[in-house]
Design a protein that fits this description.
The protein contains 10 helices and 10 strands. By secondary structure, the chain is an alpha/beta fold. Strand 8 and strand 9 form a beta hairpin. Helix 4 crosses helix 10. It is globular, with a radius of gyration of 17 Å.
Length: about 260
């Protein structure tokens, strides 16, 4: 069975204490076919050329500061996926486009925070790859090359945040700021319409695009997901599985196929 491709808003470590969101993620994964492995690209790992993370369980990367100690005690010892790493290398390696291995790089919070809720038994092998660029078109191309993995039972997941401007939130005075709501509405409509050109040029064609994503790393994983979906004919089969807002940020999460 061809696996869907997902883009999810991953949340920060306190997501685990939210009364609603963890259950939404758990229900989402329960409704999916059981994956043989998860291929995760997170907003929190930028590395060029494209890098493959550890293929064995390693300590998590607690890439956040100032949180209560309990968030640094979370463990997620999912099996490594060396076979998947071999497949990714074979699909992506080409003259002029090297792929590197960083064997001591564990899962960061963009990867493990949602996976703890979706596959809490940590029994699905996981491989994380880096974002080698923030260029949407190049990320789409990477997703297209990875698309055959969907037919091998691999769940391709782009993990970001549908809106992400923490600095602006500090001055928003609570609630959902207008820029976050406007971008979320625009992005939802663009996805439903299949307007790939608008999404690729979101910083110019969306309302409040620069405010919603002053730096675009949290929107960038969407394009890997879209590339994987497009090559498999799934861009027209998309739905927002999770919507709404968390601490003023849009947590929209989308399934293709």
């Amino acid at each position: 069975m061809r696996m869907p491709a997902l883009y999810l808003s991953h949340g920060a470590p306190p997501l685990a204490d939210d009364p609603v969101w963890p259950g939404q993620l758990a229900a989402w994964s329960a409704g999916l076919p059981r994956p043989k492995a998860v291929l995760m690209v997170s907003a929190h790992w930028e590395e060029a050329p494209l890098a493959l993370g550890a293929t064995r369980p390693l300590p998590l990367v607690y890439d956040f500061w100032g949180f209560p100690e309990r968030y640094y005690q979370v463990r997620y010892a999912a099996p490594g996926a060396p076979g998947l790493a071999d497949s990714v290398r074979a699909l992506l390696r080409a003259p002029g486009t090297p792929v590197q291995d960083i064997a001591d790089r564990g899962l960061d919070h963009g990867a493990y925070v949602p996976l703890v809720e979706m596959y809490p038994d940590a029994d699905v092998p996981v491989l994380q790859i880096s974002l080698p660029t923030l260029d949407p078109q190049r990320l789409m191309d990477i997703g297209r090359k990875l698309a055959p993995l969907r037919d091998e039972g691999v769940l391709i997941v782009g993990s970001g945040f549908f809106t992400h401007n923490l600095a602006a939130l500090r001055h928003a005075g609570g609630g959902v700021p207008g820029w976050s709501a406007e971008f979320d509405d625009w992005g939802h409509r663009a996805l439903e319409a299949g307007d790939v050109d608008a999404l690729l040029d979101f910083t110019r064609k969306s309302p409040a695009g620069r405010l919603a994503h002053p730096r675009t790393e949290h929107f960038a994983p969407l394009f890997v997901t879209m590339g994987a979906a497009e090559a498999g004919g799934g861009l027209g089969e998309q739905k927002s599985v999770i919507d709404g807002f968390w601490m003023g940020l849009a947590k929209r999460s989308v399934q293709f196929g």
